[in-house]
Structure formats: structure tokens, C-alpha cells
Amino acid sequence: MRTLRRRAAALLATALITTSLAATWEVRSTTPASASGRAVGDDNSDHTDRRFLASCRVKIKRSHATAFCHNPYPVTDRVALHIECARWWDVDADTAPVEVPPAGYVELTDRCWMEIHSAWVGHDPLRPVRPGN
After folding, report:
1. pTM > 0.85
2. Of 9, 89, 120, 127, which is most buried, counting CB atoms within 10 Å of its CB?
3. Do 80 and 114 fall within a single domain?
4. Is 130 helix (H, G, I), strand (E, B) or coil?
């Protein structure tokens, strides 16, 4: 009888752990959403073309995050690094938007006090000025 209870408890614990890991994986695999329901980092309006966004890669090392952005396109892109800290008491960080000119390169750096949960780059391409507007 005692082994049956231990086996049932172990099975229940395994099921709970598996469920919580699956839920954590699903939460981390989705794009963070803002209060308006749009994806954070999806700051593009209908007037912009998504293919003219600067290419960025984010490197996280302990409590520091750095974004390396290069803009190979003829349109200026405005980028900002957004950091979500792992601890509930640690304030999330957002850098000021920086313009990346055509053929330009920028590095954005920010940090949390402890671990970083996630970091991503938001884009806001500047509209090209058309003659007559």
C-alpha cells in the first residue's frame, strides 16, 4: 500500500513538473504583447515596409544585454532595445530610440540588476519624405 502511494505521488509530481515546464516554454516562445494587443517590437504602421528594417542581433551576458544593429537599406530605421528582467522587483529597461542611417551601425546596451528574462529590438522606420508632401 505504501509503494502504491509513493508511486502515485511520484506520478503526480512528474505530471505537475511537465505541465509547468510546457507552460513556461510556451510563454517564452511567444512574442511579448503590449496592453493594446499588438506585439512589442512590431511598431510598424501600414505605411512602412517590413523588409527595410535594420538587421539586429541581441547578445545577453549575465545581467547585460547588447544589441548590434546594421542598416543595409536606403531608409533610416529607428531602433530601441527592450529588456525584461527576470526578478519581479527588478525594473524592466528600455533604451532611448536611436536612428540607424542607411549603411549605418549602432550598438545599444542596457542591463538589469540580476538576470535578464528576455531582450528584443523594436523598430520604427522613418518615412521617406516624398517631394510634394
Report:
1. no
2. 120
3. yes
4. coil
